[in-house]
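REVIEWER CHECKLIST
Item 1: Sequence provided? yes
Item 2: Single chain? yes
Item 3: Sequence as submitted:
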Amino acid sequence: MRYWLMKSEPDEFSFEELHRRGREPWTGVRNYQARNFLRQCEVGDLVLFYHSNCKEPGIVGVAKISKAAFDDPTQFDPKSDYYDAKASKEKPRWSCVEVSFHKTLKKPFTLEDLRTDKALRTMLILRPGNRLSVTPVSAQEFKVIAGA
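Item 4: Structure as written out by the authors:
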């Protein structure tokens, strides 16, 4: 099993929304490195769900990969903000996964918590300049944050 951190702006798609829906495709990733991480996700992998670009950024819950990588349908939709004119059904460029709700953290693990916990200092999210929306997380980092 692998562990991941996925960022979402709560105004766009929140963890509460995932909880209500149960499962949702994780679409709209338009960075090749993040896309490649998505392609490594396997069913059953656990995901730290991170709210970004909000008053108090941080990890608010845990999701689970419920469907491995498949073609992101938004790349083919001219009405989508994530449309890619260079993508075709024959040569898709972008992938997505399906995530499902797993559990809400008792208390959010804030960005400040991440920065001050010595066990987490090597997390990719904390590296200067890192803006990836999907990053791998070690089993130890996951345990410190999610307690399991």
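Item 5: Key structural point noted by reviewer: The chain has a mean pLDDT of 96.
Item 6: Recommendation: ____
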